[in-house]
Model the fold of this input.
Amino acid sequence: KRGPTILKLQFLYFIGRGRGLGEEVGNMHCFLLLTTLVCLVTGEHLAVVRGVKEGTEGVIDINGFKVMVLNDMEEVGKVAAQGAEVESVEDVTGKNYTFFTAPSLCGELDKDAQWGARSISGGSNYLAESYAFPQGGGGEGVVVYILDSGVSCNHAIFGGRCTIANTGGPTADTQGHGTHVAGIVAGISRKASIKSVRVSNTDNKITYQSLLKGVEWAIDDITAHGKPSVINLSLGGDRSDLFNKAIESFSTTTVVVTASGNKGVDACNISPGSASNAINVGNAMFGNNAYGPSSSSNWGQCVNLYAPGQFVSSASNVEPNTYVRKSGTSMAAPHVAGVAANYLAAGVTPSYNSMLSVLQETALKNVIKNPKSANASDSTLLHVPCAGAVRTTDNEFDCFGEFVTLNSSGSLKYPETGNYKNVEFRCWKVSCTGGIDMTYKTYDFEQGKDGIVTYVNGVKSDSYTGTSTSSRFVRYSQDEVVVQLLSDESVTGTGFTLEWQCGSSSSSTDYTVAIVVVVCVAVVGAVVVLYFFFCRGQGTTPGNDVEAQPAMAKQQGVVNVQAQQAPPVTQQTSSDPFNQQVSNEPAVEAV
Done:
């Protein structure tokens, strides 16, 4: 405002600030004139002062900490001339403070997005019909570093915006984990640049040496280009305070997103997720109109929020246009990393505090059912509110794959020959008028990992896993039944065979009444026979009593046979389809 001020500064004082001659320091440029260091200074400064007189104008006293906001260094000199000691001066020109209000990320809609993306735009108990993302794609000008098993950057999902770091070691993704993780980020943040930093060795093992070298490479690269950046670490191991400190050393200028881990334990026992400045993510699954934690997900106060991580479809490292499904916290973390990239492009400061504040502001609270702890974060779900993202009109569960509708009585054997495939997700919807009689003839699945789940009018009814060769009959009074096949990445079986008959509920009423009448008549007859034997037949021979017992046995046999035709259906109350959560997290997660 008053123009540059010429100051004479002590040479040693200036060198002590760690700057050389002829350098810019904020708005101060210094040069050596003969034996005097001369600096030109403009701009706003904060000055910490001691010994200032009471009532001095402009002094802000915060519990004894006295600070002044001064327009330029000339005013600092005036304060010093009044006998006050100026302890330190900080150039704050251009440093502005704003409210941490989340910018809008709404703009375009994608109906074909994978379920995890549609979950971000959905509600507390439903998926959105489409994934809502920023106009133009989101994340432009932001770099997301994938420290993982490598990334197959030639995959179509990356669209030429993926590059591979040359760290001196192997770079190709021979495992598929890193490509899958990067693909999730690319699907969420559609203009962000992806940089692959492989941190596993030739045996796909991670060592502290390889991991820390990867972190070093990423930070050096961020420093060189100066763009807002996110580092995604979908990996972890036993807690290491020193490793955590390495993460904490740069997370004030870079957003770090970590996977909480898949051991089902307190996440504070795992690094790097337990680092104080890492945004640590748990694995949420969706089913039966609700979100719940994966049984394998780590939990506790070191988890910041949950994101979709179960049966997530993303890029495969095998072919440029193929996709696979994987599960784990490694799949949940990149959902958050992608959203973080979009927020950075929208102007959020690239730091832990700023980003976590925005993510928590927009997250859905208290929506994770049966959380693993009382911590609020264990019931918090990643969310980006968008008015254009409406509730899906599909079933209240996600089919995760091919959907076939069957409108008449019939039978189904799947597969027709051989075994079903790894990571297969299919649904068959039987629609009839008047109810459905369904017989599960046989099934052969990997116990607890693969199987079929039945939904009636969108609500989970029962599930079948393991192996059975005995028919199971179930009568549904409703007009719609969906049979969903789910398989993981390990052992497969021969699948299942079922038959169904439409329109059976109306006729079944007469059938049931007839059975009841027969049983009642039989019971009455038995009572009459017993009455004559025991009350009226005191003079009869024991042989008559013996004759009555087979008659009772025959009547009981009728009832038992009928009961075998319609055995009770076991209801599965767990949100996990087979009461044992599938976790396909590869070995890369273990440090």
In short: Confidence is low (pLDDT under 50) at residues 1-41, 506-511, 537-591. Residues 89 and 291 are 52 Å apart (CA to CA). DSSP finds ten helices and 32 strands in the chain. Residues 504-536 form the longest helix (33 residues).
